Amino acid sequence: MDIELDANIRMALLISTVVLVVFELLNMTGMLGGGDDKLFLIDLLGIGSGEAFRPDTGFSTQDLIGFVLVGIMGAVWFLSAEDDLDWEALLADEEE
Question: Cβ neighbours of residue 71 under 8 Å, at least 6 residues apart?
Answer without folding.
Answer: none
